[in-house]
Amino acid sequence: MLARAVAHVSQSALGHNLQNLSRRAGVPLLLPVKADAYGHGLELVSRVAAAHPDVWGLAVATPQEAAQLAALNLGKPVVLLTPPTPEELGPLADLGVRLPVGSMQEAELLPAHARAHLKVDTGMNRLGARPAEAIGIGQHLAQRGVLEGAYTHFSSADEPDTSDSEEEFRRFQAVLAALPPVLAHASNGGGILSFGKLPGMSLARPGLASYGFAPAHLQGVVDLTPVMTMRARVNQIHTALAGESVSYNRLWTAPRDTRIAVLGMGYADGYPRNATLKASVLIGGEVRPTLGRICMDQMMVDITGLDVQVGDWAELWGTGDISVTDVARWGDTIEYEVLTGLGNRVERALVP
User: EC no. (predicted)?
Assistant: First the structure.
């Protein structure tokens, strides 16, 4: 069956970003590939990243992702960042997955053959142990011989004011000082772009930055290229006569006879429904507006005067005229949500 919508994932763009981010951080990368590699395709991205010399390992958010990734046998460590259930500890340890530990109870449940990464809560108040408690947990893990790493997560490293992140890092350093040497990692993408190399760190964890995006005030700090180009096929072409409306709720009425292309992507595929009456696409060599309400499976585009045929492709975002940032703004959301919201009806394809 022919694909209705395809996300082209650039191997060269991903490699370019990983190299530049590792240079900026001054350490190898623990690449987050959670949430289907931020929508880019878990297996596809992980195979490319595992072969990259600047990637130490791959990080995921759920036990299911960890098991799926470990089964690929890519030769790079898999680190689980959020706690599994007690029943999942043994099977994950058997697969070689590095396990997060954020409490003494979790530490005591670890199998003897596990490798643990201590999670320190320095200000996010989400997961992990507070610094004073983390020291005791880390020492316990070290005594058992299972402590491999320690990590924290900056709560606001993507903001212009870095004072909170600096304080969080000081708290993390205090924990590390009380432990034997471990693989320490703290910087997300914002941390890498804001601070560069942080003292005592072994790894860095750039998420969205790896896929080509930086906060507005940090753009240009590192040369990043968007990795994904999203295209949808023209499934039908017809004409709406002057005075006729298009799509649900009659939000748009044709002021003249209007030639319309129906594209095979809608909000069930991850395109924001809130982008209705705001979004545009690149089609037939021009940027053209979408018309009417974005539907579950389709969206309509004005192609009046263009040489467009059924089966042609429209670019919804990429590296040129329209970016994911534009789509996120039209949809009143953020790039993360647009990318990770791509559904499984969207084919992922690796391109050079």
Answer: 5.1.1.1
